Amino acid sequence: MINSGDLNERITVQIPAITRTANGEQVTTWAATKQYWANVRYVRGARAILSGDVMMTNAISIMMNWNDVVTERCRIVWDGKLYHIDSINRNKQHYEINITATRLDVGGTTEGSNG
Q1: 91, 56, 88, 94: which is closest to 75 by C-alpha?
Q2: Which residues contact 7 (CB under 8 A, 6 or more apart)?
Q3: 90 contacts: CB under 8 Å, gap ≥ 6
Q4: Is the pTM above the cut of 0.85?
Q5: CATH 2.40.10.270 for the 4-107 domain, yes or no
Q6: Which pLDDT value is given to residue 92?
């Protein structure tokens, strides 16, 4: 069971909307659904040089109350940074969700929030 006092960070969940252009090309846009209170912790960080670009990945663990909105297709915005969901572990007994998400930062620039 999550102690409500531990949910001290605001996260925004973005859900994908997939459409097709006149040429049949698939386009994904992201819509912010709502903000949730969560407990967020850094899990790990790594830095590598690939093809001359510096790549940094940061993984976080998010614990939040149960909801049916968050899926593996969603994205998380936390502290102004965009995170892609790697895995979701739902625990109905304790009415909580544990999410592992990764932020990818290439060449010192952060990914945009709508791309």
Answers
A1: 88
A2: 37, 38, 39, 63, 64, 65
A3: 66, 96, 97
A4: no
A5: yes
A6: 83
Token pair for residue 19? 């459409």
What are the boundaries of each domain within the chain? 4-107
What pLDDT score does 35 carry?
94
CB 34 within 8 A of CB 3: no
Taking only the tens place, the pLDDT of each residue in 46-102 is: 655 556 665 667 889 999 999 988 999 999 999 999 999 999 999 888 889 999 999
pLDDT computed for residue 93 by the predictor: 83
Asked if 76 contacts 34 with a C-beta cutoff of 8 angstroms, the reply is no
β partners of residue 60: 42, 101
* Res. 108: pLDDT tops 70: no
Distance (Å, whole) CA 96 – CA 2: 7
Amino acid at residue number 70: V
Instruction: Extract the runs of DSSP E, i.e. beta strands, from 1-115.
Output: 9-20, 26-50, 53-65, 75-78, 81-91, 96-106, 109-110
